[in-house]
Amino acid sequence: MTPHADDSPLRHEVLEEGAVWRVVLATPKANVLDRRMTEALTGVFVRARDDAALKAIIIEGEGAHFSFGASVQEHLPDQYATMLRTFHALFRSILDATVPTLAAVRGQCLGGGLELAAFCNRVFASGDARLGQPEIVLGVFAPVASLILPERMGRGGADDLLLSGRSIGAAEARDRGLVDEIADDPGAAALAYAREHLVPRSASSLRFAVRAARGTFATRFIADLDRLEILYRHLMETHDAHEGLKAFLEKRRPDWRNQ
Known about the structure:
Blueprint: E1 10-15, E2 20-25, H1 35-49, E3 56-61, H2 80-97, E4 101-105, E5 108-110, H3 112-119, E6 122-125, E7 130-132, H4 143-164, E8 167-169, H5 170-175, E9 181-182, H6 186-198, H7 203-213, H8 215-235, H9 239-249
Helix pairs in contact: 1-2, 2-8, 3-4, 4-8, 7-8
């Protein structure tokens, strides 16, 4: 196990003689994907890319919840450009590493937390998990989710979550393809899957298989993410985007002007 430094937002465990890494979001209860957490996760995948023996990465949250999502404060007008650049660099690093990724989800898995989980190759969830993309409630949208949720759920299911901002339970998420398996202990289930299906395989061949399976998606994702970053900048020129974020932080109802 890699020691959890006092200033690190992650706990990193090396399992199966180096074939599996367990990466734990270690800032409970919310496990917010702020800039510090995001940069630490990106560093994990940069290192993973160069570890030839690595066959799987399991991501889970410490405590009762996976993640409440990205930092709302970092979405504000003076910070959002840096937030987008940092957050999206994480997903580019996941694609670049080409290591099979497994998410173990308990409790709340919202916003950027759901984007991270859904981006993994397989999602294991506890029966009490709640998954949602509430960005629209704050007057903004989720670029990564706009691209990955249709891949998992189809256009109709993705539109439902992206446009309503509602959360769904684990059973509905499994029925819709957002969750692959429900387990009492999703972390243990993810590790069992890795031990049975990934550890016996060639690490080199697994990376080629990930690259092959995600090849056309990866190409589209990178191009579309650039486009959505431009769209997000236009969004942040509107009154309602600013108002929604400000109202959330001030714990009040937003005053929408529809502009």
